Amino acid sequence: MSALKDGRWGLVAVQGLLFAAVAVTALLPGPLLWRSLWTGLALVILGSVGVIWSAKDLGRALTPSPVPNHQGLVARGLYRHARHPMYTALVVICLGVAVGSGTWWCYVSVALLAAFLEYKTRVEERYLLSEYEGYAEYSTRTGKFFPGVGQRVASR
User: Fold this and answer.
1) Quick check: 144 and 117 in contact, CB under 8 A?
2) Does a structural domain hold residue 3?
3) What CATH number does the domain containing 59 carry?
4) With a threshold of 0.70, does the pTM exceed it?
5) Which residues contact 127 (CB under 8 A, 6 or more apart)?
6) Is there a contact between 111 and 134 (Cβ–Cβ < 8 Å)?
7) Where are the transmembrane segments (predicted)?
8) CA distances from 108 to 17, 24, 59, 100, 112 (A)
9) Domain around 97
10) Once rounded to an integer, what is the mean pLDDT over residues 48-71?
């Protein structure tokens, strides 16, 4: 079945819509939560560094699709400490936007994005487990989004 037909790129489209929702909701009027332009900017910069570093570590294995592109399992750099550091960095960027704007809806959009990325990683990891022989062992010793948090339980 082609990637287009089985919905793999649909996940990428939803992810893009959620990024757009974060941007748009940052501009909406309405109730405000905690906000700080400087803290928001610091989070955006920190997340941007994480995205660039993750992309560098992935190299040719980088793809927006949850389906591996047959470039090999990456377990070096940031990926030595977390299985999905780029997703973590993207949420940090979006959280920075929410903190900078302070809008309630922007915080909600970031929470929806984080929940979606949790779902997307579950789909992605099914592909990674079937594609790369060493992924099961790697995932039992490596945190999901943060070092030491969310290792997969070894299957028997």
Assistant:
1) no
2) no
3) 1.20.120.1630
4) yes
5) 66, 67, 68
6) no
7) 12-30, 37-55, 86-117
8) 14, 12, 32, 14, 6
9) 8-141
10) 95
